Amino acid sequence: MLKNLRKAHLSCCCCKKNFKNLKKNIPSSLSSSLPSSSSLSSSVLTTTTTTTTKHKEQQLQEKDSLKSTTKSNYHYYQLKQQLFHIHKYNNNIINNIYNNNINYSKQYFHFNSIMSSTTTTTTDNTIDTNNDYNNITINKPPTDQKSYKFLKLQKNQLEILLISDPQTQQSSAAMDIKVGHFSDHLPGIAHFCEHMCFLGSKKFPKEGEYQEFIKMNGGMTNAFTGAENTNYHFSVANNKLEEALDRFAQFFICPLFTESATFREINAVNSEHLKNRQEDIWREFQLFKSTANEKHPFSKFGTGNLKTLQEIPEMEGKSIRNILLNFYNQFYSANQMKLCILGNLPILELERIAIEKFSDIPNKGIVTNDFYPTPEVKVYNESDLQKFYKVKTVSNLRDLILLFPITVHTKLGNIFGRSELYKIKPERYISHLLGHESEGSLCSFLKSKGWINGLSAGPISKFSGCQHYNNIPVDNTCDNVDKVTVDKMEVQTILFNLTMELTIEGESHYQEIIKYIFEYIDLLKNPKNSNTTTDKVTVDKVTDNIPVDKVTVDNKNTKNSKNIIQKWVWNEMQFTSKLSFENLEMPRPLQLTTDMASNLQKYNPQDVISGSYLFEQFDENIILEMLNQLNVNNFNIYLMKQDWNDVTNVTTDNTVDNIPVDNVTSEKVTKNLWKEEKWYGTQYSVENLTLEFLEELKNIKHTTIELNFPKQNPFIPEDLSIRCLQKQKQQSSEPQELVNTDMDTTNLVNTDNTNLVNTEENNNTIVKEEEEKGPEKIEDWTDNEESKSRINFYFKQDSHFKTPRLSVFYHFTFPETYASPNTVVMIRLFTKLIDDYLNEQVYAAELAGLKYDLSVNTNGLTLLIIGYNDKLNLLNDLILKTMVKAALNGNFFNEERFHLVKESLQRTYFNFKFNQPYEHALVSTLQCLYKVKYTSLEYFDVIGEITFMEMYNFIYRWFKFMKFDILIHGNYTKEEATKLVKDSEKILFEDLQNLQKNYKIKVPKEEFNENILQLPLQKDVILPIKEYNLQNENNALEITYQISKRNLKIECIAELFLQLISTAYYTKLRTEEQLGYIVHSRLRNDHNILNISLIVQSNRFNPLICLGHSDYFIEKLLFKQVLENLNEDVLQSNISAIISKTLEKEKQMKMETVRHWSEIITKQFKFNRRFEKVKFFKEITKQDLIDFYFKYFTLNGNTTLNSDNSTTKNGNTNNESEYKRLIVMFYANKFEEEMKEFLETNKITNEMLGLDKLNKEDQLNDEKVIENKEEEKNEKKVEKEEGDNKEDEVKYERVEREIIVVKDLYQFKKTLPLYPSFHQY
């Protein structure tokens, strides 16, 4: 998988990761608005054997699918980068040590001291004893109770971070290698190498064995290739960590790279590329690369495809396998690798395993940044800049982008050799101000003019360069930066980007927009020339929350301060970043190890966690050096939209679409000016900007009074006390002592060991059933029965995470929400207008760690508010007051903003056509199964006719019948929660009293009841649809087996069944058959009905062929390969792994809130559900799994398992077949001819499914197996296996079944019965 798009991560992803957003066990009405876990950008560091005296839970910050804390600046791009990971998807301690042959120090046996406060070091000569590595203490959050150890192996110089977490239910490991596609000498070879490492090693030669082992033991595996690094990672059950590491280590010691797998896997890489080829984000980023300086590695094509990996080598007479081996042997070196291992074992046991498994990785002594050109080779030459690009997009976009390449020469650390620019973070200061969205910001001003809908600013890519020892001056592009000389330097490049989503009017004003951008940049460079009131926010100003003069920073570079950089802004950023770090929320082990291994490449080991957060040094010169590279000599303009008129017969005369261009390239011409980018086929035109236009930009000074620095943030929390700890102290006999109730902010911004959270010991144990208490429904919050009838109030005080966070979830119930596509669209317009109106005020809250999300569900609205509890009530009141005012006052919203928001939402609906085909299949499947399910295309059909008054009248009437459920969970007392509910009631209902008295039209009060359709028994329902995007070459197939009404027993059997079969399904169809890049299986709960779905996306085969391969596996291979030979040990191992996953405590409080919330809004209230599931998991037998298979996946349901593991049919009527199947096919335009016979006849033949070819290939494989086994010495064994293989030789005959080809979906749905709309499960 590949990584490096929108911030140095072009990505390649194996299919399993593509379904990260398919949230399990969360109602569809909620899933679209829930925060989702994502990666850290920091790391963990520790001592040679670092342990802590007080064990506290480490919480690593998550970037949410809610608006990022700084969504429009730096962190916006951290979120963007996640889209472009190229993913691969896909105790007996003493005995373990005594049984090992390696000679370890006696200190390995001091297990009782491992978790103590002392620091233990080993004397084994396998570890580098350099004191610089032995005395490292990880800078970690005070709530982190894990133990860490950083070590460097003397044998091969491999750096390792060990994390011991006795409370974890899953172990994990990750290896990050400092080599990526920048090192490619053949486009895509680094990415291809990443794919190939999964396909067997000398020690474990079977393809798919590693993935199968991981999956069978409750884990998952993944990988990505970036510009400068490749990262492999996995999670697994605790008791299988050592075995998993043994397999994992072979990736880097002795991978096979077999000839057959090499040629097959090229197809997977090609499929991945074709999957991304119609994605605008990939096309945009590759255009930036392809138009860069071809001498710089940034210009390379990182994914690879059939042409680069097969056709070009063949034309040149080269072996792709030899090229692959040469690449691996050249770059996969231990001294360029960083390993992170997390487990529940003691540190010393983890160290023993790490040394044993990874010491044999060869160290080739390479330096990977040697391939970088010399410092004078820039990413963009002067001749590549000052350009205007017009770019044709696939989807209906309208974006204006300014790209500034920034180069910084940074000093390298003397000990660890890493650049220490991360301690200064100069780009974040610039991103923070240019990307700000509050009053006075560039975004706010341009939105007020109606020219943009949004703005983001920050690095889209950051990468290092060559190291040099010359005494060269820092590149000084501005007059204000003093020249300095250094001894050892590294070139770092940041591609700084401003992106604006234009309105229709804004498109005709983008010259003015560009001028205002340069005016704001001038404000940042020359604040003293400002006509605005910046004197109110000078460096000496003490904010309400942060005494600036108390901030402890490195002032070594501020002696000659020019007072250009706003120190109060930097102080505020430093404070909020430290606040985030001190209260980091932990991701799951897989994400943690992935990020830690990656961060070891970027940060000094002690800063592996804190490196992405803390601002350790204030360096005005460095910030100015970067800021002054935002100038007219150093940028390009990109205007991106879908509806360009072709310029073939258009005469240009000194302008191109109102942008002045150079006369040299804009002489009157009648030729086609469009070019085509090489790898993605993106059409674009490029012209030089005129000297007059550039001169105008150069001379712009800040004069616009509306453009100003942001105001100080009123949402920064002050009270960080932990309520449950206060309660404990009040109940104790000791004198009461409240923690930080009136916080002295002096202590919050120090860079010493002062913490921003309570430092009481955090007893964060694995949850036990008796401790699993769900929220309590509060009945005594009011005596008013009317209030109780319209508000259901649930509350749980957090006593587990012990952080100053709170989650407040609302479910507002309104009538008629889902009455028609029109009503849904009107409500969505209402929520979008609320967001638009609040944006300026709420943006400051987001920067201070408060986030909200307002979304539509089938019965009304969902409002989620999460963050620090101290100022959350302010945000809560602000949102609710805005909702009520907007509903009751027709003049509250500006009608002009209504039309801008409507046009943006309209384009969003329209762009659904350009989603991936498998996404289309997923939506169409839901549309088939639900009685009522609207789609984006239906919304697009009606949104154009909706007027402002129509929307307002509906909302006005709609609010009359509002009621709501509310869950408050976290750092609040019951009294505080009750006050918030009462305040919310007053805001929401006080002004509605008159509305209810005066409004006479009766509106139905019934809630919308969702219903799932029951598919016909023992039939295939097939829905074929031609792919909406005719340029997309991919087909998609989703096969849904409808199981039954949801209950705990059948759900547990289904989960275990899927765990057993998913890897085998993936290996057969994706790895061996190479159907396509995306092959996935999942368990899906649609409302209250259980389904298992199989998903395939292919650019090589039509959906019928994919269906044939899937049926071949399900009907012929699955039972024999997976179920029939399943022994009790393997079964119990799988059950143990799935129980561990089920019982694992959430790493973030908000995810616990989500689990409780799901029970509340589905009216199940089974808060101990996971413990009840464990009881069923323990009772599952092999016969249960076989019964499940025959009952729901075959037409023959009656099957019994005999004592010899054979099966027989019987008359057991309790297991009659309940086979019900839905098949949704999206076929690409190029495959329409292949689908023609099926579409005309509504019949499926073996030839259409490709079964004749499959049978022939399988027979040849069986003959090879028999021939090999005849050579074995054990004759009895051979005879038996030959007999078995003769059975396998039987030609596969697909079981005939009745098929229903759906031509009119709505008419067909009317013929189907309904499952009950509600039942307890």
What does this structure look like?
The chain has 1321 residues and is α+β, with helices and mostly antiparallel strands. The protein is 36% helix and 16% strand. It contains 42 helices and 30 strands. A hairpin with a 6-residue loop joins strand 2 (147-152) and strand 3 (159-164). The longest helix has 27 residues, at 821-847. The chain is globular, with a radius of gyration of 31 Å. The two termini are 39 Å apart. Residues 2-123, 472-486, 531-559, 647-671, 733-766 and 1264-1289 have low confidence and may be disordered.
Q: What is this structure's SSE topology?
A:
Layout: E1 2-3, H1 15-18, H2 28-31, H3 74-82, H4 93-98, H5 131-134, E2 147-152, E3 159-164, E4 170-177, H6 189-196, H7 209-216, E5 220-226, E6 230-237, H8 241-249, H9 259-276, H10 280-290, H11 306-315, H12 320-331, E7 337-343, H13 347-358, E8 387-392, E9 398-411, H14 426-434, H15 442-448, E10 452-468, E11 489-502, H16 504-507, H17 510-525, H18 567-582, H19 589-602, H20 620-627, E12 636-641, E13 655-656, E14 659-660, E15 675-676, E16 683-688, H21 691-698, H22 723-731, E17 776-777, H23 785-790, E18 791-797, E19 805-813, H24 821-847, E20 850-857, E21 860-868, H25 872-888, H26 895-910, H27 917-929, H28 936-943, H29 948-958, E22 963-970, H30 974-989, H31 992-998, E23 1019-1026, E24 1035-1045, H32 1048-1072, E25 1078-1086, E26 1089-1098, H33 1103-1123, H34 1128-1143, H35 1149-1161, H36 1169-1179, H37 1182-1193, E27 1199-1201, E28 1207-1209, E29 1221-1227, H38 1232-1241, H39 1246-1249, H40 1251-1269, H41 1275-1288, E30 1298-1301, H42 1305-1309
Parallel strand pairs: 1-5, 3-7, 8-12, 18-22, 23-29, 23-30
Antiparallel strand pairs: 2-3, 4-6, 4-7, 5-6, 8-16, 9-11, 9-12, 10-11, 13-14, 15-16, 17-18, 19-21, 19-22, 20-21, 24-26, 24-29, 25-26, 27-28
